[in-house]
Design a protein that fits this description.
single chain; about 140 residues; 3 helices; globular
Length: about 140
């Protein structure tokens, strides 16, 4: 297998539901890239958050690239800032929320994929704005 190399222009972006306050740039896609995990840059708009959710078998890791937030996992709360890592175990109910003054950017990996990439790809395409491209380029 050859190594995989991509750049910003190669990341399709989607909002899962039209009213969601976060969107995803698909960095590694199990179908397109033949890997067993999914990695995205998840962008939370100001005040944005995920709905409460859990995953049967997957671990989910958030690495905060920029911004501030909070996360709740099975009733436990923690703050998030650039450089922090949050790993959520399978079956844990969790929420991640942007509590900062700007966008919150997280490099998020779910392993195994557990249908997450497919859910994202069924969403509405989104274009990255200048701020997104600057943050992605600074990774």
């Amino acid at each position: 297998m050859l190594p995989i190399k991509k750049s910003i222009a190669d990341y399709p972006c989607y909002r899962i539901s039209p009213d969601d306050t976060n969107y995803f740039a698909l960095v590694m896609d199990p179908v397109a890239d033949n890997v067993s995990f999914v990695t995205v840059v998840e962008v939370f708009e100001k005040g944005g958050k995920t709905p409460p959710n859990s995953h049967d078998t997957a671990y989910e890791m958030f690495f905060v690239l920029k911004g501030e937030g909070k996360a709740w996992c099975d009733g436990n709360e923690t703050t998030l800032k650039a450089g922090d890592v949050l790993v959520l175990p399978p079956k844990s109910e969790h929420v991640v929320e942007n509590t900062g003054n700007g966008k919150l950017y997280c490099l998020t990996t779910m392993m195994p994929n557990e249908g997450f990439a497919e859910l994202i790809r069924k969403g509405t395409p989104v274009a990255l704005d200048a701020e997104d491209i600057a943050v992605f380029g600074g990774m």
